[in-house]
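Exercise 3.2. Students should predict the tertiary structure of the chain below and write it as C-alpha cells, then compare their answer with the key that follows.

Predict this chain's 3D structure.
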Amino acid sequence: RTARWALLRAGLQAPLGIRVAAAYRTGRLVGLPSIAIDSSQSIGDKSVEVSWQRPSVGLSAEYATTSRFVPRTFRPFLTVASLDTIPATEWLTVRARVAPRQWLTLEGWVSDPVGNPIMGMGASHKVFTGTIRSKFLRTFRSGIFDLKLQLGVESWGTGTFGIGRDGQPIVLPGATQLRALIQIQLDSFILYFDRSNLQGSRDGYVPGFQIPTLASTFGVRWAFLN
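Answer key:
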C-alpha cells in the first residue's frame, strides 16, 4: 500500500482585512495504516474560504467538498457491525468573532454537511466560546500577568453512527457539552486547569462509550533561559 498526495494552497490578501483562500488536494491515501488489509483510496478535496478580519470583529465562510470514502469499523465498537460508504460530501462552515472590549472575545463556528447528514456525524456541529483576558486590562499594563477565563459550549445534532448487528441504523443522539478553562500566567510561568462536561451529562458521542463527567486536565509550564 502506498499513499501519495499533493496539496496546493493559494491565498489573496486584499485591503480592509478581506482575504480569499483556496486549497486542492489530490492523490491516494491510506485511511488506517495500522490495518494491513486497508487499501489506499483516491482523494480529491477542495475548498474556498472568504474572510473579513478586523481587530474587533471577524467573519469567514468556507465551502468545501470531500471525496467518497470507505470507512472501516473498529474492534472496540462491538455493537457496530459495519459503516456505510461516505459519499462525496459538500460542507459549509461559518466562523464569527466579536471583541466588544480588548479583554473580552466571543467566537464560534458552525459546520454542517450540505444536504443529507453523513454517517458518523450529527446533522450539525457547533462550538462557541467566551474568553476574558486580564492581560489586556489597563490595570496590568506591563503584560507580565495574565488571567485567562474561558467558557465553551459544544453541540451536535442527531444523526446515524453505523449499522448494528441487527441490520438497523444506530442512532447518534444529539447533545450539548459545557467546558471551562482557567489559566494563570506570570511572565514565563503558566498554570492551567481545564474541565469538560461541566453539567455531568451521561450522553456520549459514540454509542456505548460515555463521555467522562467533569473530566479535568491540569498542568504547569515554565520556560526560562540560563
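Discussion points: DSSP finds no helices and 14 strands in the chain. The chain has a mean pLDDT of 87.
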